[in-house]
Amino acid sequence: MTWDDLDEFGIGEIGIAPDRFERMTWRDFDLQVRGYFLRLARQKWMMREIIFYMIAIETPHDKTPPSRKEIMLLPWDEPEPAQRQLTLEEVAEISDRFERGKLNSINATMKNGSN
Fold first, then answer.
1. Cβ neighbours of residue 13 under 8 Å, at least 6 residues apart?
2. Residues 77, 96 within the same domain
3. Is 41 found in the same domain as 12?
4. What is the pTM of this model?
5. How far apart are the first and last CA of the chain?
């Protein structure tokens, strides 16, 4: 990171006045950066809450609204556990079982219908 990068972030992104930025200690700058990121996180949390309640109000009573994490993941949220993907062999086995079951069902219907 260069001095220009620090100037760009401190003065441009965070919005510290240039004369104040020049007089800051590293500790002051660190506190300013931490506060900036906390403020961003709080804004994202508030945005997610507003969106959640807007969706919840419009969701029919017989349906469950999406969870807050489904709407927007925040840095401190634990991601939902990933579901395991089926292998090609498992898909083929399930398909075979389904087809066998369907054929057995058709055969049973035909036997019962011909009696």
1. 36
2. no
3. yes
4. 0.56
5. 85
In order, the DSSP letters of 13-50 are II---HHHHHH--HHHHHHHHHHHHHHHHHHHHHHHHH
Residue 15 Cα to chain centre, angstroms: 29
Q: What is the arithmetic mean of pLDDT over 84-109?
A: 76
> What's the total number of domains in the chain?
2
Token couple for 15? 């919005």
- pLDDT, tens digit, 9 for 90 and up, residues 44-96: 999 999 999 999 999 998 888 898 988 888 888 876 677 788 888 888 888 88
Q: What is the pLDDT of residue 54?
A: 94
**What is d(CA 93, CA 51) in angstroms, rounded to the nearest whole number?**
42
Q: Range of 95's domain?
A: 85-115
Mark whether 28 and 66 lie in a shared domain.
yes
Q: Which of 24, 3, 29 is nearest to 14 (CA)?
A: 29
